[in-house]
Amino acid sequence: MKSKRPALPIGKGIGIGFYYAVLAAVSLLMLVPFLWMLSTSLKEPAKIFVFPPEFFPSSIRIENYTEVLENTPFHLFYWNSLYIAVLVTIGTIFFASLAGYAFARIPFKGRNLVFLILLSTMMIPNEVTSIPMFLFMRMLGFINTHVPLIVLPIFGAGGIFGIFVMRQFFLAIPKELEEAAMIDGCSRWRIYWSIMLPLARPAIATLTIFTFLTSWNDFYDPLIFLNDRELMTLPLALSLFTDEAGTAWHHLMSASVMATLPLLIVFFFAQKQFIEGVSMTGMKD
pTM (2 decimals)? Predict the structure, then answer.
């Protein structure tokens, strides 16, 4: 026979209920901009700025989406953003996990000092290094290509953040697993690939979401390194809906909704590992 759970004290129950009510209210408040974007994307242009505002459009206009797809090479912008974000995410996870494992598990002289210097570079704003990076990429002939958008984030601040996340996670893994693998004759690479990476799935999920989100939403770097319209990524392409005549809000909101979908999909499939990774990162110095 199952034992009954002890009832919560009335005061504690009220406190928990109030806590969840506040969280629900904040969640709804954060959903309002997204729901307004979705609502505006389905409105007729003349009804976007009516007063009082219509949160639920009286007539749904799907043509806003079809006009975006017909009047712009939106599929090309989508592909540019998608493959750049995927390559940046894969490259960041691979190199950050390698470096994180080295900083966490391989003892070498000055390890903590090197790691501290590496972290300190994250305090340098992107605007400070943009001109030197532009001149360097121009010298290599990579201006107006996607190479700077792939290489620089992997080995820049995003990669350093990934090293920090992976190092902190690897530090929390018991050393006995590594010692047992060494006794069995495993090399450093085999330990990293066969033992550490499978255990680091929560940290990898966390890093995947952060890296994919940052790369997908990046506007500054494409603005600097790209010139041709066919090479544009989605954040830069969204600026095409604004010109001297004004902003086509119905088209801009429709394009923004379509640009947001991959982020929701990535978070939906990785949210469990993401929450676990955030909670476990930083458990040990």
Answer: 0.82
